[in-house]
């Protein structure tokens, strides 16, 4: 692994070694098949196995190597969608349920840590959402009232323990920090056995609803009474994708050389920055994320890291950025996650649209979906129903985001690439070129070998764009991502980009 690859591994990945689980050896029959080995998938699997179900977890790569491995791991009731907005769109009861469900998810993790004796550095801390301008301050006062009415332990304070001045903050008590990979590896260790399995490096290509359901993979078929799609976005579900908007988010971390009170912090800028502390192997780190943008819309993503590093070094007692990584954030159309039975499905369930609180919503998804499969009532199921339609909530974003998808689908096909020759593609770089009258996505490896693939995303046919900092081909329509040589990194695509021949 070279220095650049190491630098792009998250703090969680490098401080908790992976487990080795086998690939699917052939056809298997279980009670529940779960696609995705992240927070939602492993929580669902653990809860179902504890209830006596035989489960199988399938991961395209390695468990916890997807978005759960790239999280900043805030455990919080302070959601990306303000409580004032939730109250307007879901009513007072809906806002209260959003708050109490987030609290229940945090307590679920706390209970598992105590019950199983998991050493994952779990710590209760306050959360601060702060304002630095008069306009931000006015909006913040409104949100303090809405959060308190929703049931949060929320107050307004001007005593914010940051090393730079702010005008005030919403402070919420009893939030939490933890090491997500240590926590989830402890759950994963308890899933295999008694007819249950975890299979890595197994790509799901088709999901068939029925009695029973069939999950077709590149290594065999899993037959199950129910299926949970706990992936970043569900596989090939066009209707659901119109309600999901994929964004890239960037993170940097470094050891603190001075004091910073343990906690979670979030500014009110647009896009905002989110900040937290973490003890790892006796050292205290500050983790700073932000610089979000729509997937596939920025080729010079290195500048996102540069901006975050400058922000961190300017504001915190940090002299060395030791880790940097990026993740995929899926924004829902109306501000809340989609968790439940999929549209037009009887036995297939989805969990997606977690915004920037994937650890909280991923845990909540496991609670709601395990209850649904076990035929238990869950007080939060109706609020997060994956089939809900909220015509007013997020209508402007729905129209704008889907209009952009339609624009990209047409414009990228009609546009001509900038005039470049193969020789213009530098080592470590990718470009879409026109070769013999056809568009080709070309990547030149560090050893000088060129790789050419089709630029047409195998999901719904939009064209991919080069992501310079992450060295990936990213689709701006629905967030599919591919390696420089065309291998699927992120769904909803399930097929690699086809190879293309270059003239000799």
TrEMBL record:
GO cellular component, as recorded: cytoplasm; membrane
InterPro entries recorded: FAD-dep_OxRdtase, FAD/NAD-bd_sf, Rieske_2Fe-2S, Rieske_2Fe-2S_sf, Rieske_Fe-S_prot_C, YhfW_C
Keyword NAD annotated: no
Keyword Disulfide bond attached: yes
Key words of the record: 2Fe-2S, Disulfide bond, Iron, Iron-sulfur, Metal-binding
SUPFAM superfamilies according to UniProt: FAD/NAD(P)-binding domain, ISP domain
Rieske domain location: 417-504
GO molecular function annotations of the record: 2 iron, 2 sulfur cluster binding; metal ion binding
Any Pfam family: Rieske
Transmembrane intervals: none
Protein name: Iron-sulfur cluster-binding protein, Rieske family
Organism of origin: Myxococcus xanthus (strain DK1622)
């Amino acid at each position: 692994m070279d220095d650049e690859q190491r630098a792009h591994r998250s703090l969680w990945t490098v401080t908790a070694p992976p487990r080795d689980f086998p690939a699917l050896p052939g056809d298997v029959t279980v009670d529940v098949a779960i696609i995705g080995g992240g927070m939602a998938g492993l929580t669902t699997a653990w809860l179902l196995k504890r209830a006596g179900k035989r489960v199988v977890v399938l991961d395209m790569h390695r468990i916890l190597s997807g978005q759960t491995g790239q999280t900043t791991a805030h455990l919080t009731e302070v959601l990306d969608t303000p409580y004032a907005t939730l109250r307007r769109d879901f009513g007072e009861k809906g806002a209260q349920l959003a708050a109490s469900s987030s609290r229940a998810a945090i307590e679920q993790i706390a209970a598992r840590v105590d019950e199983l004796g998991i050493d994952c550095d779990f710590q209760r801390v306050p959360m601060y959402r702060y304002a630095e301008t008069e306009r931000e301050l006015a909006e913040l006062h409104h949100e303090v009232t809405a959060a308190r009415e929703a049931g949060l332990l929320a107050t307004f304070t001007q005593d914010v323990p940051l090393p730079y001045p702010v005008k005030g903050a919403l402070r919420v008590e009893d939030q939490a920090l933890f090491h997500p990979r240590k926590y989830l590896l402890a759950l994963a260790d308890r899933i295999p056995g008694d007819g249950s399995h975890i299979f890595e490096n197994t790509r799901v290509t088709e999901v068939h609803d029925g009695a029973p359901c069939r999950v077709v993979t590149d290594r065999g078929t899993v037959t199950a009474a129910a299926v949970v799609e706990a992936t970043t976005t569900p596989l090939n579900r066009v209707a659901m994708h119109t309600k999901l908007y994929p964004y890239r988010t960037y993170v940097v971390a470094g050891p603190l050389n001075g004091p910073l009170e343990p906690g979670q912090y979030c500014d009110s800028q647009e896009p905002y920055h989110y900040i937290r502390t973490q003890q790892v192997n006796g050292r205290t780190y500050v983790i700073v994320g932000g610089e979000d943008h729509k997937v596939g819309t920025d080729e010079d993503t290195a500048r996102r890291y540069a901006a975050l590093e400058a922000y961190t070094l300017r504001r915190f007692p940090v002299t060395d950025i030791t880790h940097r990584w990026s993740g995929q954030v899926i924004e829902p159309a109306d501000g809340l996650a989609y968790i439940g039975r999929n549209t037009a499905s009887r036995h297939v369930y989805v969990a997606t649209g977690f915004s920037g609180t994937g650890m909280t919503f991923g845990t909540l998804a496991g609670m709601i979906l395990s209850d649904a499969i076990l035929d238990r009532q869950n007080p939060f199921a109706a609020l997060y129903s994956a089939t809900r339609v909220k015509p007013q909530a997020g209508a402007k974003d729905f129209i704008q985001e889907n209009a952009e998808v339609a624009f990209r689908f047409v414009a990228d096909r009609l546009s001509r690439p900038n005039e470049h020759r193969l020789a213009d593609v530098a080592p470590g770089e990718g470009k879409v070129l026109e070769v013999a009258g056809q568009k080709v996505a070309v990547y030149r490896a560090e050893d000088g070998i060129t790789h050419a693939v089709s630029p047409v995303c195998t999901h719904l046919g939009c064209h991919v764009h080069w992501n310079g900092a992450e060295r990936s081909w990213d689709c701006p329509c629905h967030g599919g991502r591919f390696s420089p040589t065309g291998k699927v990194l992120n769904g909803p695509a399930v097929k690699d980009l086809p190879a293309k021949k270059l003239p000799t």
